Amino acid sequence: MGFPTSDMVSAMSWYLKFQSLHGLLVERHPMWASRANILDGKNVLKITLADETDRGVALAVVRERYTQVWAVVDGMDVLHGNLLVWPLQGTSDETLVDALHACAVAAERREPLPSPWCWNEPGTSELTELADLLAARRVTVDRVMAGNRYRALRSGIVSFDVEIIQHGEGRFLDARTDDMDVRVSLKPALGWLVDVRYGHEGVWRRVDLGAWVSGQVSSSEPGVPRDRIALSRLADFVAHELHCGDAAEYGRPETECREQVEENAVTSSFQLSPTALVEAVVAQLTERGFGDVSRGLGDSVFRSDRFWIEWRKGSSRLSTPMLQRLNGIAAAEGRRLILLSTSDISRPAAAFADQARGYVFQISQDTGELMPLNSRAREANLPRSAVR
Questions:
Q1: What string of H, E and C letters represents the secondary structure of 65-109?
Q2: Which residues have C-beta within 8 Å of that of residue 167, sequence separation ≥ 6?
Q3: Distance CA 149, CA 156 (A)
Q4: 3-class state of residue 228 by DSSP
Q5: Quick one: CA dihedral 247, 249, 252, 256, positive or negative?
Q6: Closest to 178 (Cα-Cα) out of 158, 197, 202
Q7: Fewer beta carbons within 10 Å, N or C terminal of the chain?
Q8: Do residues 57 and 107 make contact, with C-beta atoms less than 8 angstroms apart?
């Protein structure tokens, strides 16, 4: 007898996997013991619904284009009912059988999926709780990205595409009205951020949530720490912005910063003038939420009460000792560091900048574009992925 082929080994592995999932489903949700079975010759775990001849809710491995995913399908028809997708690697068996159970209960009772499953999330989080609060305030929440970065996009009667959000986007939820998109992000260092995009515009604008919380004219730094605002109050703010459409009241000064930077990148064959370069930097920092940054007077290129802004020109990579020295100068002034550099940064130096709660950006002298070089600076970026 010869050795088993790779196809035979794979088939046996999947057989054992689905046998294990079936056993775990019956163990955690014994109510389905008599109606849960693995379809003959298929890697599909199905729960047959009561009073139905064949309709059920199924868990299967589905290939969509170049991606294989776990899919929980209500009624085995992706046009109707619930459709949840999960990454093939890294999704726990408990999540899969609990999602299957939740979909089966909802289908049998003809009720909507409960939270957090309705957001295609494996567990409750601050973002799923915020989504629940917004839904209760009649806000349309399109998606929540916290513990699961996979989403199904229906593309036909019996087909769907899989959207995978990169980790660089962080954790967030997207909500909308007919003419406005809102993204609420929760960043590890900066906390809550709120960005809006109007239907007639192609760019995101940061809303000064900190000014609304503190009652000040503007905030000097993007984000509101998570312990400084209750979820119910944040939901009130977002709902008010969407329903009333007056985000500009707490928004940053409207500029054409991003469009101008992109135009510079296309048309400029020479370096910007020093004045234009400073103006481009100030505009980009302002749109990210650094509200007290402005052009300086005299020998001072920039002005800020909160930050010591250092501009370093050179080709050598920024080192940890250099960051430590510049951070010491900023601390002596009672401020934190924003470093603008024409060169790159070492990983240890970037880690130190994060630890010191500083921001490091690489600046293009041709276009004035700022590119974040440490995690804290990346968190201050405006959203990139589309909602509509």
A1: CCEEEEEEEECCCCCCCCEEEEECCCCCHHHHHHHHHHHHHHHHH
A2: 149
A3: 22
A4: helix
A5: positive
A6: 197
A7: N
A8: yes
- By the 10 Å C-beta count (0-12 exposed, 13-18 middle, 19+ buried), 35 is classed as middle
The answer to whether residues 120 and 52 touch, using CB atoms and an 8 Å cutoff, is: no
112 Cβ contact list (under 8 Å, min separation 6): 106, 118
CA-only gyration radius of the chain, Å: 26
Mean pLDDT (10-residue bins), the chain, 388 residues? 69 91 97 93 89 81 83 68 88 96 92 94 96 95 93 67 81 90 95 89 88 86 94 94 61 48 48 84 94 83 92 89 96 96 94 97 90 96 68
| Element housing 234 (H / E) | helix 231-244
Coil, helix or strand at residue 38: strand
Judging by DSSP bridges, how do beta strands 370-372 and 44-48 pair with one another?
unpaired
Q: Closest Cα partner for 25 from 13, 33, 14, 17? A: 33
**CA atoms of 308 and 114, how far apart (whole Å):** 48
**Residue 165 to residue 313: CA distance in whole angstroms:** 35
Distance CA 294, CA 300 (A): 11
Length of the chain, please? 388
For residues 382 and 195, the answer to whether their CB atoms sit within 8 Å is: yes
- The amino acid sitting at 386 is A
Of 32, 42, 39, nearest to 11 by C-alpha is 42
For residue 248, what are its two tokens? Answer: 């500009």
